Amino acid sequence: MIGNISNFLKLTLLLLAVFQLHYIFAQSPKYHIAPYQSNWFEASEYCHRMGMRLAIADSEEKHNDVVREAKAADLHEAAGSFGVWLGATDLARTKVFIWHNTGIRLRYTHWAAGEPTGGNEHCLELHYWIAQGFNWTWNDAPCHDMRYAMCENVDKVSCIEAF
Ligand SMILES: [Ca+2]
């Protein structure tokens, strides 16, 4: 009898632990900015190591989300110029920007005036540099420039919605 109660308690504690973990993961933040700057490829690898991916901003709402997160890092005022890598490039075909982790072409965009400039600039960043006309707007930058990775948690529901 005591053995049965003990097993019941163990099972109850196990279930509580599972629900607790589920709650923690459900509450985990959607975005994370790397603590250091890197080129676009290293930024993408960094996000994957974190179990995340470079952020996809394929709507006004998601653009506003990444702007809010980038502002919260509170590095832009002191630096004057501040950029975070987003998850798109036109490396496969020049001037055709693709969200790398979904293979979907950009429909919504938030380019700064005159962008994308092309040339050797193939990687997408969200840029704040008022003196150069970037006010949390998009820029194609050389992929080996140094920026902060803007990672996002992969949302399984939105992946399904994409199809
Ligand atoms: Ca550019």
Describe the model.
This protein is an alpha+beta fold and 163 residues long. Helices cover 36% and strands 28% of the residues. The protein is built from five helices and eight strands, in the order H-E-H-E-H-H-E-E-E-E-E-E-H. Strands 1, 2, 3, 4, 5, 6, 7 and 8 form an eight-stranded mixed beta sheet that branches. 28% of the residues are buried. Bound molecules: calcium ion. Calcium ion (CA) binds next to strand 7.
Q: Which helices and strands appear, and what pairs or packs with what?
A:
Elements: H1 2-26, E1 31-38, H2 40-49, E2 52-54, H3 60-72, H4 76-79, E3 82-89, E4 98-99, E5 104-105, E6 123-129, E7 134-141, E8 147-153, H5 156-162
Parallel strand pairs: 3-8
Antiparallel strand pairs: 1-8, 2-8, 3-4, 3-6, 4-5, 6-7
Bound molecules: calcium ion (CA).
Calcium ion (CA) binds at residues 115-117, 121, 139-141.
**Hey, roughly how much beta strand do the residues contain?**
25-35%
- DSSP helix fraction: 25-40%
Structural class: alpha+beta
Order of helices and strands: HEHEHHEEEEEEH
Distance between the termini: 53 Å
> How many DSSP H or I helices?
5
Number of strands: 8
Gyration radius (Cα, Å) is 20 Å
Q: Are any ligands bound, and if so which?
A: calcium ion
Quick one: overall form?
A: elongated
Mean pLDDT: 88
- Low-confidence blocks of residues: none
Biggest sheet: strands, sense, closure? 8 strands, mixed
